[in-house]
Amino acid sequence: MAFLNFVDALAESTLPETLRTGFGLLDREAKRHRYRRGRLYLVTINPHDDLGNVIMAHAAEAGERVVDLQHGGVYGWASVDWLHATDEYSHDTFASWGFTAHEDYEGRFVPLPSPLLSCLRKMPRQASERIIMVGAFMYGVPPRFDCYPPMMEYRRGKRRFLDALSSDAVARLQYRPYPSKHTFDDGEWLRRFYPALPIVDGALTEALCSARLVVLDHPSTTLCISMAGNMPTIGFWDWESWPLARQAEPFFAELERVGILFRTPEAAAAQVNAVWHRAEAWWHEPERQRARARWCEQFALADKHWLLSWCRRLPAI
Q1: What DSSP state is assigned to residue 178?
Q2: Close Cβ partners of 167 (under 8 Å, ≥ 6 residues apart)
Q3: What are the counts of helices (DSSP H) followed by strands (DSSP E) for the chain?
Q4: How far apart are the C-alpha atoms of 58 and 301, rounded to whole Å?
């Protein structure tokens, strides 16, 4: 009985304010907006934006057509992705970065070029000797049943990769940790073993545009950025911990076949050792470029005239 009382008290004390009197404040603010039946409501959904979500609910109730816009990676290729399916695919339309089906999740998928990825084509490339390795968010405890790997094994994979690099490659390597105070500080952890390892901060896309070679230890938004930006890229991760949707498997398998993606840190390090000094020539070999282009058509759609494409497609949504 004491335990049940504790659970009741805990549930009561941690109940979000938006489910108490705070909801009335959000509702009144949302009612101040004007809505029109049939109008498109374009939104990038944020589960933590309480006011934005109440406004969206009013828009849907008023008959506006909610079009959710993709805003990152994982969409379309993660086998387990129920959060996006329930929160975003469930609206009138989901504007994807290329894919038209994702496992058996229901949704009306309409491919549209990503403004973010399309802008990469305008960014200048600055040749340098840098090899930039980009890490992912590292949860202490994964927040949901999802596609995250065991974090400590994932972290150890970073060191396995560095240990397998040649001294020339290590001398050019710089590490970009995920910029959040809520993640493990894997940059400083790596520097325990490689004290001279430079840590990259600031704008990610600018750093990537100045890299001779991009190395990724996870499949997420940065993979879309580097592929759409046509940046020489080598990726590795445990494919069992990041299971792929069945529709995505052929496209990732093709990247693996042409030597862009690998399943172990050691195999990826061997490829870096072999190609870093001629990364541009290696990357632009026709077979590799064809595989990259096919992958981008599905998961990183970009177009320098993206706004024109949107204007043509949106009225028919």
Answers
A1: -
A2: none
A3: 15, 9
A4: 31
Distances (CA, A) of 283 to 184, 217, 233: 32, 18, 8
Q: Which whole number is the average pLDDT over 285-306?
A: 97
**120-299: in CATH 1.20.272.10:** no
The three-class DSSP label of residue 49 is coil
Residue with tokens 């387990």: 80
How would DSSP label each residue in 233-270? EEEE--TTTSPBPTTTHHHHHHHHHTTSEESSHHHHHH
Q: Which residues contact 109 (CB under 8 A, 6 or more apart)?
A: 89, 93, 94, 96, 99, 100, 101, 102
Confidence band of 142 (pLDDT split at 50, 70, 90): low
Q: CA–CA separation, 295 vs 312, rounded Å?
A: 24
> Which burial class, exposed, middle or buried, applies to 90 when counting CB atoms under 10 A from its CB (0-12, 13-18, 19+)?
middle
pLDDT score for 157: 94
- The burial class, CB within 10 Å (0-12 / 13-18 / 19+), for 204 is middle
The model carries a pTM of 0.91
pLDDT digits 0-9 by tens, 6-58? 988 888 888 888 878 889 999 999 999 999 999 999 999 888 899 999 999 99
Report pLDDT for 274. Answer: 98
Q: What is the mean pLDDT of residues 214-219?
A: 96
Residues in the chain: 317
> Are the C-beta atoms of residues 117 and 96 closer than 8 Å to each other?
no
pLDDT digits (tens, 9 = 90+) for 161-204: 999 999 999 999 999 998 887 788 888 999 999 999 999 998 89
Burial of 2 (0-12, 13-18, 19+ CB in 10 A): exposed
List C-alpha distances in Å: 195 to 14, 131, 186, 188: 43, 17, 13, 9
The C-alpha atoms of residue 48 and residue 190 are separated, in whole angstroms, by: 32
Residue 317: what pLDDT? Answer: 85
Domain boundary assignment for the chain: 12-118, 120-299
